[in-house]
Amino acid sequence: MNMPMQSSARSEIKTNVVVIGGGHNGLVGSCYLAKAGHKVVVVEAQNNIGGMTSSGHFIKSAPDHIIHPCAVDTIFIRTSGIIEDLDLKNHGFSSIDTDPSYAYLAPDGESIAFWRDPVKTADEIGRYSPSDARAYLEFANTLEALLSVALPMMRTDSRRPSFKEIISTIRSSISNRRRLGEIGALALGSADQAVAERFDHPLVVAALLGLAGGAGPIDADGSGLGHIIAALLHKVGVGRPVGGMQSLSDSLKRCLNKDGGTVLTGTPVEEILVAKGQAEGVRLADGRIIRADCVLAACDPRTALGRLLPDGALDKRMRARVEHIPANSRGAAPMKVDLALRGRVEISKHQKLRKDDVDLRKPALLIGTAEDIRSSFSSSIRGELTPDLYFWAAIPTACDPTQAPPGQDVLYLYPPAVPAYPAEGWQVLREKAENIIISRASSYFDNLDSLEIGRWVETPMDLGARTGAFNGCVTHVDFALLRSGPLRPAWGLGGYETPIKGLFLGAAGSHPGGGVSGIPGKLAAVRVRRFLDRIS
Ligand SMILES: Cc1cc2nc3c(=O)[nH]c(=O)nc-3n(C[C@H](O)[C@H](O)[C@H](O)COP(=O)(O)OP(=O)(O)OC[C@H]3O[C@@H](n4cnc5c(N)ncnc54)[C@H](O)[C@@H]3O)c2cc1C
């Protein structure tokens, strides 16, 4: 076993790699490194591993209801090969495919389901607008082309792309050459523009904007890329982890432990130790030192390269660059409200209008008109909260009833766009926001008042404080074209290496970005391995 060594100074641990952050990216990177024979110690600030891929019994009055404070569905990781490489199924990870994976709920009871099959999705759209149905099939083809060009690059180190992935991108670009202009317009324009160019029916427009809004402001140039989620759900589908998202993190920890890696929880890193321009380990908040050949920072890059580095470790220019890394820079941030319920929650108005056997309790639900979605983002820029808040919802217990006592449910409510910096401050706005979210949800979900046992509420400020993510940014760094590939998180900081020798970045703030993918952790581990090989 590659156990870390206690050094002669009793408070010091020695290891090859110390990983800051036990979110899924930190754990994925650690697993690959431990598998390659390196001694790895992961240090996680919270008492539990997982970061934004955690779930658990967070409501005191409902100790048997599993709550998801952040991610609930897996999509990107299904493209990464990580589940197979690390044999996560044998470490306790499994998921249930949802098909349809998403459904848009209109205020009047109508709904549009997003199926794995784009033709079935177009058929749904055709119930409202035959021309939008045709446009959807065409859009799905463009998105598929975009994905086939982009995916190989998303899976490789953008500063040292593998030959295989370059060839794959070139091949896809050639075979989709007639669509490249359209892909360019989609990638450079806004998500709202991409929809306006193609669709007319208000329900269809709202459904597509609601889906893309999960990636960030739909009016920002470059946000058109957010429609890639539709391509992914058609290509790889959506999986909901059995037992909750924590099971992904726990399976990674088991895999790491098997290869000798160690995880310390409740141990925030206070400082990255740097001597002569080289990272030498970390100092924990409790004063302990972990000496290491190198440090992999799998927390957000503004924390890693800002708060945790000693003064003077970065020059003025690089320090300024770090301080300007955008995180919810357009003023919109996520909020979460989860309700533990004493019974089964129904969506009867919408369910009754469906003419098929789709159970609307199972997919992730998109709620709000196109105007609600636009005003959620535009109000946030002004530091205001719109009363017509748009939100995502899910009933994780509908797919996996083990997450609550028999016959009971959990309702997950997630508005992606509330103000990051409200004029009134979150201390004041918190209760108002909570009431708006519950009242909006009550017009879609039956009897919430009488069903509620307890709730979990997290504002962007709380999320930032709990997970360490700057401004509570779900992707650590804004999802934007100019923060993609080698430019993520900033010019000169792409490719997982930093100006400090032996200090690497490997979480959502690095290529290819946020979401439950594990890819930043996996690719950072390759860089770390090369470094360790060089110095050994
Ligand atoms: C509300 C919400 C819903 C989401 N839904 C989905 C979804 O359904 N599907 C999806 O694909 N994505 C979703 N996402 C996005 C996704 O969860 C994240 O982008 C992704 O999990 C980030 O993973 P990570 O490992 O890079 O970072 P994190 O999960 O943020 O992990 C970083 C870790 O570093 C730790 N840390 C920070 N500072 C220190 C320190 N000083 N010392 C020690 N440890 C430290 C943190 O505690 C944390 O555990 C959602 C996000 C949110 C917030």
Describe, in plain words, how this protein is organized in 3D.
- There is one protein chain.
- The protein is of the alpha/beta class and 536 residues long.
- The protein has a domain at 5-55 and 244-327 and 476-535: 3-Layer(bba) Sandwich (FAD/NAD(P)-binding domain).
- It is 36% helix and 17% strand.
- Strands 1, 2, 3, 8, 9, 10, 11 and 19 form an eight-stranded mixed β-sheet that branches. A seven-stranded mixed β-sheet has the order 6-5-14-15-16-13-18, sandwiched between helices. Strands 4-7 form a two-stranded antiparallel ribbon.
- Helix 1 (24-35) links the parallel strand 2 and strand 3 (40-43).
- Helix 4 crosses helix 9 and helix 7 (191-198) packs antiparallel against helix 8.
- The longest helix has 25 residues, at 130-154.
- The protein is globular, with a radius of gyration of 23 Å.
- The model has no long low-confidence stretch (mean pLDDT 95).
- The site of flavin-adenine dinucleotide has 39 residues, from helix 1 and helix 18.
